[in-house]
Amino acid sequence: MKYSYIKPRKKTPFTPDVQLIVTFFSITIIMLLSTYAFLLFKDYSFVQNRRELISSRLDLEKSIEKMDDKIAYIKRQKALAEKIFTQNMVLKDSIENLFDLVPERITLSRAELLKNGLILYGITPSKDVYNFMLQAPLRSIFQKTYTSFYSQKNGWLRFVSTNYINEDEGEELDSED
Amino acid sequence: MLSKIFEALYLKVLVNIIVKRATIVVYVELHSKKGAIDNVNAEFETITPNEKMIDFINSYVKESPYYYISILDYASIQGALPTCDKHRIPYYTDLSDSEYKCYNNSWIYYTSKTQLYEIEKTYKSIGIDFIFSPFVILADFFKDKIIGKIALYALVQEGYVSIAVFQQGELLYAEHLDMQANTEVEDILLTNDLSDDIDLDIDDGGIDLENIDVEDEGTELEDFGNIEDLDSMEDIDEFDDSKDVEEELLESVDTLEESTEGSFNEDYQRFSLIQTSISHYYKDERYKSQFLENMYIADAVGVSSDLKKYLEEEMFLNVYIRHTELDAEVCELAKEELGLL
After folding, report:
1. What is the value of ipTM here, to two decimals?
2. In this model, does residue B242 exceed pLDDT 60?
3. What is the CATH classification number for the domain harbouring A148?
């Protein structure tokens, strides 16, 4: 202000028209940028999701493999269990049959079930009673049978009968376990 | 920084308003970084901004946000004083109700605060950026002359005459003369004088020569009587030789308008005001009065040759008249303010 009595009004290029245009373009640009940013974020999010899904798919595939292995193992266990159960059932039946085999005149004092055999302790009135009434059925079941007799004061005989089945059948069962 | 870039991109619109007696002249100049690219002016039959004038200004103003509206101060109470010292101002006049500015740390120009606010209020609809004093226009227009020998300078507008005495760039005296106010005063005085004269004639039955006051006419002669430079005719011849050759050449090119009855009256009134003012300058001891040899007139209205004749014959001045376009001069000042020159 060199010569004028008053100061000039402050001039700004932002007239109402310019303000309107700038506002319009600003809003448009902001909207475009926000859309672009949203799309970028979405794209990033999709990529992340895809990676996560791929990784989870791989994990699932691995776990499926593990589960398949487990299933196979369980199936084998089941098969073995069924076999053992069947064998046990057979054994139970055999024992029941065994006890059914024992005649009334012979008294068992003790029975030991071995892996591949049976040891019976008992008292018999005579060797003949034992041989005819107990040894015969035992021989039909066990391949090897050994019997020892001890005489008692009353004339009766104490016996120990050791019976074994074939070893091959026993080994077969072990390998299955 | 950003505003500077925007400023460089836009055109500058300089609107300059000159209020005349019955009209308003609006001069618009479009300014780019390279310089003025277009200008247009229009005159409106109004003394306050009307709808047509506002529309005209707005049609240019809306082209750029960088528009500046300047106006030449038309306040009747304004002037200039030969000091910039605040403590010296009251020695000349009381400026408590005036707005003033210092020109080149040499002299001040002032205007009435009330009238300044009135101008701002009148042009509130379009707003005003610059208000310039006619004395600044005068100093700027004759900047090549005021640095020289002592001379009387006058800016003649419709209704106003701004006179100033400069010596080597220093202001010695200035006065803003309002023709309208003076006319009203003169009319009142004339009416009173006529009624008094009629009364006298009736009472006395004739003109009593003893009652005629010859002192008033004599004062003008007394004003010049004290000046030593007029003591010999040789000095007067020297004055004739020292006439401004350049101005003479300019004048010979300019054709002064033929005097009509209207302009004759106005020019006589102007002469009368100038004469009274110069008389005041010579008399007032507060001003450094020296004999005035040359007078330069910035003519914004097209004065007749009568004014020059009166001044030369009655006041023994070498008068040089330069035509000026006030609107363009105001525009130049606005450019100076904005640093466009």
Report:
1. 0.79
2. no
3. 3.30.1360
